[in-house]
Design goal:
The protein has 4 helices and 9 strands; from the N terminus they run ααβαββββββββα. By secondary structure, it is α+β, with helices and mostly antiparallel strands. Strands 1, 2, 3, 4, 5, 6 and 9 form a 7-stranded antiparallel β-sheet that branches. A two-stranded antiparallel sheet has the order 7-8. Helix 1 crosses helix 2. About 15% of the residues are buried.
Length: about 170
């Protein structure tokens, strides 16, 4: 909602400024110049806002939270994103909340989150088996045995080149 208000404000501001400039010089503007300049300003602002969201959001994260993956997106509604996709969501990892298992030291639990521009943010837990290069998603219904190991989880092959795996498995 704030984006629409900002876009309309930019359009009215630029259109009004152009109209005021013509009035100050006592000229009559061509009929197309005010709506054209207002529309162009709104498009430029929309494009800038689309690409500036990700770096602005990352700058607000605490220093212990890192971006482990960007999730770019394209849309026909924003045709410029078909050429250069914009980041509409990304995955973060809290490096202070990495927990290595006390007895099974190859197992590491990490807390992650998906930060999205147009939908609510989501939190998640993942367990890595650093020795085998596998990962399991830990949900609210996950049960653990007496040793603190998850029971009946599906293990996936982890991306060993991914920043999440590297940071999780390199933590002491």
């Amino acid at each position: 909602m704030i984006e629409i208000i900002s876009i309309i404000t930019i359009g009215l501001g630029i259109g009004g400024t152009i109209l005021l400039a013509f009035k100050l010089f006592r000229k009559t503007p061509p009929r197309y110049i005010v709506p054209l300049s207002a529309g162009l300003a709104m498009i430029v602002f929309t494009i800038w806002n689309e690409y500036a969201w990700f770096p602005r959001t990352v700058d607000q994260l605490p220093s212990d939270v890192i971006v482990v993956k960007e999730l770019p997106a394209s849309s026909i509604l924003f045709p410029w994103t078909l050429i250069v996709p914009s980041v509409e969501s990304f995955i973060i990892m809290d490096t202070l909340k990495v927990q290595r298992h006390k007895t099974h030291t190859d197992f590491v639990m990490v807390e992650t989150g998906i930060v999205s521009r147009y939908s609510p943010n989501k939190a998640g837990l993942h367990m890595f088996n650093c020795a085998l290069g596998t990962r399991a998603d830990i949900g609210p219904g996950t049960n653990f045995d007496k040793n603190g190991m998850p029971i009946e989880v599906t293990w996936f092959k982890a991306d060993k080149e991914g920043l999440m795996y590297i940071r999780a498995c390199s933590q002491p």
